[in-house]
Amino acid sequence: MKIKSQKDFWSGLMFLGVGVAFAVGSLDYSFGNSARPGPAYFPFGLGVLMVILGAMVLFGALTKDTPDGDPVGAFAWRPLIIILGAVALFGFLLPRMGMFIALPLLVVMSASASDEFTLKGAAINAAVLTIASWAVFSKGLGLTIPLLPTVFGLGS
After folding, report:
1. What is the residue-level pLDDT of the chain in tens, covering all 156 positions?
2. Alpha-carbon span 100 to 111, nearest angstrom
3. Does residue 38 contact residue 32 with C-beta atoms inside 8 Å?
4. If DSSP codes are grouped into helix, strand and coil, which group holds residue 51?
């Protein structure tokens, strides 16, 4: 069988691999039932859905004709490094500087990895996501997340 779309083929394999890993990784936990789902319930369901999605994308890659074979381009190292660095910095800063500083930094740094980056757009996105995260996680769910810097004994 001939691969007709390289991008879809590799994307489908990635979804299949991650889905199988989630499903198999969840087997060590209790499933519970529909009324009281256990810790394995969501990751197993997510894994199964990812396997189904991966199979559909992979099937399309083997059946759908593309003019040039839809080759995979060069690997985008710069955005990958910027986004991984932003996430690592967020993980380091959150307990020390609080969500009101760490989350906007994460959003602006991650957005800077794009070719379409504008500081105004990233700042608006950071403000909306920070307010929404505060509303959902701190107020809505009542999670204890530091909001302000704890460096000077301020946190909350």
Report:
1. 677 888 888 899 999 999 999 999 999 998 888 888 888 889 999 999 999 999 999 998 888 877 776 677 788 899 999 999 999 999 999 999 999 999 999 999 999 999 999 999 999 999 999 999 999 999 988 888 889 887 655 555
2. 17
3. yes
4. helix
pTM exceeds 0.90, yes or no: no
32: its two tokens: 């519970």
> Which amino acid type is present at position 53?
L
Comparing CA positions, the residue from 61, 59, 56 lying closest to residue 72 is 61
At 2, list the tokens. Answer: 């001939």
Strand spans (E) along the chain: none
Long-range contacts of 79-87 (CB under 8 A, 24+ apart): 79/113, 79/114, 82/109, 82/110, 82/112, 82/113, 83/109, 83/110, 83/113, 85/109, 86/110, 86/113
71/61 Cα distance (integer angstroms): 11
